[in-house]
Amino acid sequence: MRVITGEFRGRKLDTPIGNDIRPTSDKVKESIFNILMNDIYGRVFCDLFSGTGSLGIEALSRGARRCYFCDSSRDSVNLTKTNIKKCNAESRSVVILADFMRALSRIDEKVDVFILDPPYKAGIYEKCLQQIDYLDLLSPEGIILAEHGAADHMPDSFGRLTKVREKKYGKTKLSIYQCVTEAGQELQEEDNE
Question: What's the whole-model pTM score?
Fold first, then answer.
């Protein structure tokens, strides 16, 4: 597993042993960052179920100002810290060992991009959306990108959050949420054309 492009391009990242962590495939990772292309530089990210840290590190490599890496697994957090160190990205990284509810409550600034990639079938996407909305953590033009199984249904809206785009990549689907604003409506209209 390598960083695709940017400051840390080509940097090899450590991968997990066993099946406890499911890293995002390079194809899906490339698609995620093609979608986020204009929403990276100078932005604050949160890789909420960081696993290896690959997605957050890719964001930092492409110019994100800061990334919160959160995971409830000590092994995942240690792997994330190792990969952050390999990229000398400690000064722009905040690593939180906690379940997602406690991790979200420890973020003390608005986040521009949330990446949600929990274990599939865990039934926690709605709880994540609810907590992000409840704590008002998403910046006004921010987005939440949820990676989930292609057969899994994600709600069209949740609180102030509305699904504005959905893309399928084989067995994986990406659902993108924003706060209900004119910008969100424009994205929805573009996808319907």
Answer: 0.87
